[in-house]
Design a protein that fits this description.
The complex is a heterodimer. By secondary structure, chain A is α/β, with parallel strands linked by helices. Chain A has twelve helices and 14 strands. By secondary structure, chain B is mainly alpha-helical.
Chain lengths: 349, 238
């Protein structure tokens, strides 16, 4: 749906160059929710703005739905933009128009006949659950309601792509969840491709199919959200994941382990599990099968989009050979096993 | 000789205010009407020209929809130059131009020319300030929907800045009341003429004070109207 090749964006003059994006390559599939995560200043905002040419790339090409949009003239670009909806962190609703007329705005731009447009606005109000607020002005709405109006407005011209620029960053966690749910519903109902940028890993976890991690103007990692959660390949990805999944082992536990067992046969391991295996009694099967003991020190379970995802920190005690066998048993079941008690480890990664 | 013509002109022009036995309230009413008439038309004229200039100033600025730094700089300098001219000097400098446009440099119609000339650059800066308050995010949102520059100006910039623009109209009109009195001293008509030629030159102190009171009432009236119009727009949006 969207193909970004060798995208580079440089701001400023030749003496004082600021590189915002460096050789970005991305392919976003039709119908997926694609997340781009990065810290502020990483370049994600520039990247999403290049997709509808709010920022002109310095180099590289962007193809949206088979159309190279970098070389379009102004008139054609305006037509293409009508088919790329966008929502914003600060909603950007017109205070001079009520909710109904705000949603009407893109339809006016697209010169949709008035009656048809009114019908469309009514439908959209229904979709976002604001039919009773049609005549209200944005000033009277809550943040979540404003973003719903923003979403309705972005969908008015039946876009093929929806760009979301930190759409939930100004909202409280509960409202964020409801907006993300709305985006997921729209994605499913309309088969709409959604590209969202965020600095919040919860947003990625909650609704994205795939994610790109951006750092220092380059994409450092791209992949399925589940894969990145279970096996982050770069320090940037790891730090984002650790920001929401508590994997740190309290120091007392590491020390306690050292105290009690000294050099004896015990191993501190972290087991990560994804999807169906989360529902199976694998740990107890392992304990029955191998003559070892397990002490559960820490665990949590979470959801990535609609898939359960969790990790468990275990202290395995018994003969080293059996512990190794038990660990390969877990790996055979598709669990990720990571040994924690090597020297000086304080869980800091 | 145009000078002599104008002196004669001036005398006949002053008669409606106060002849030998003229009725004072009538003269004050007539002069007030002239002031309001001059202020109204010159405000209108200055917005007709100043507003487009303001739009050009804002949209041609760096990073804006019609970015054109050169045009922006040139227009900005012209406006600054025009604004740095004291009104009393402009009044005199504009005489040939006024004469060319309306055929005379005396009277209310003639005053509208220098008044508008003085207000145009002022309006341009005032409206520029109002338009600059609009969050770039709104323009970006409109661009993302495929809006043309004209649609952004008409449907985003002006409606969003409207309350602030209305307040600016009141400020401009009040300034023009002051300027019109200055023009009045140079034969421009209105309350300025009345106050100067009768109140000051003929020591009719009462007339001077009546003029002051009437001016206060006019200025108050304009401000109240402006505030009301602006808050009407704002309240509708709440």
């Amino acid at each position: 749906m969207i193909e970004i090749s060798n995208l580079t964006k440089i701001y400023g003059s030749s003496e004082q160059e600021v590189v915002a994006l460096k050789d970005v390559n991305l392919y976003i599939k039709k119908g997926e929710i694609f997340g781009i995560i990065g810290l502020s200043g990483a370049g994600k905002s520039t990247l999403i703005r290049c997709i509808n040419m709010l920022e002109k790339p310095s180099r590289g090409s962007i193809v949206v739905d088979g159309q190279a949009i970098g070389s379009l003239d102004a008139g054609k670009l305006r037509q293409v933009r009508q088919k790329i909806g966008m929502i914003f962190q600060h909603f950007n609703l017109l205070s001079s128009r009520n909710v109904f007329d705000n949603i009407m705005f893109p339809l006016e731009i697209a010169k949709v006949p008035h009656q048809e447009a009114q019908k469309k606005v009514d439908e959209l109000l229904e979709l976002v659950g604001l039919s009773d607020k049609a005549r209200v002005y944005p000033e009277q709405l809550s943040g979540g309601q404003k973003q719903r109006v923003g979403i309705a407005r972005a969908l008015a011209n039946d876009p093929k792509v929806l760009l979301s620029d930190e759409a939930t960053s100004a909202l409280d966690p509960q409202t964020t969840r409801s907006i993300l749910k709305l985006l997921k519903d729209i994605n499913r109902q309309l088969g709409l491709t959604i590209v969202l940028i965020t600095h919040d890993m919860n947003v990625i976890k909650e609704c994205c199919d795939r994610v790109a991690v951006i750092n220092n103007s380059t994409i450092v990692e791209v992949g399925d959200v589940l894969n990145i959660f279970s096996n982050p390949g770069t320090p940037t990805s790891r730090s984002f994941i650790n920001s929401i999944v508590n994997k740190d082992i309290p120091e007392e536990i590491l020390h306690r382990e050292a105290l009690n067992h000294g050099g004896a046969a015990s191993k501190l391991v972290r087991v990560s599990f994804i999807g169906e295996s989360a529902g199976e009694p694998i740990i107890s099967t392992m304990l029955q099968k191998y003559d070892i003991k397990a002490n559960i020190l820490y665990g949590n379970i979470d959801r990535v989009k609609d898939t359960p995802f969790g990790n468990l920190t275990l202290e395995l005690m018994g003969s080293p050979a059996l512990i190794n066998d038990a660990m390969s048993f877990l790996q055979e079941y598709g669990l990720e096993v990571e040994v924690l008690n090597y020297a000086g480890n304080n869980g800091d990664y | 000789m145009p000078e002599i013509m104008e002196i004669i002109d001036l005398n006949s022009f002053l008669t409606p205010y106060l002849g030998q036995n003229a009725w004072v309230p009538g003269a004050v009413l007539f002069a007030s009407w002239e002031t309001i008439y001059m202020v109204f038309l010159s405000t209108l004229a200055s917005y007709l020209i100043g507003m487009p200039l303001a739009i050009i100033l804002v949209t041609s600025d760096e990073g804006q929809i019609l970015e054109n730094p050169q045009l922006n700089k040139i227009l900005g300098s012209i406006i600054n130059a025009a604004r740095s001219l004291p009104f009393i000097i402009l009044l005199i400098l504009a005489i040939p131009f006024t004469r060319w446009v309306v055929g005379t440099s005396i009277g209310t119609v003639a005053s509208i020319i220098p008044l508008s000339l003085a207000a145009i650059p002022f309006v341009a800066r005032l409206v520029e300030t109002s338009l600059k308050e609009i969050d770039w995010g709104l323009i970006e949102a409109a661009l993302s929907m495929g809006a043309s520059n004209w649609e952004i100006i008409r449907k985003v910039l002006i409606p969003e800045a409207l309350p602030s623009i209305i307040l600016g109209v009141a400020i401009t009109a009040i300034n023009l009341v002051g300027y019109s009195a200055m023009a009045g001293v140079l034969g421009g008509g209105g309350l300025g003429t009345l106050a100067y030629y009768h109140g000051y030159m003929r020591y009719q102190t009462a007339i001077m004070w009546i003029t002051v009171v009437v001016l206060i009432v006019i200025v108050q009236g304009i401000q109240v109207l402006g505030n009301k119009a602006a808050s009407n727009v704002i309240n509708k949006r709440r």
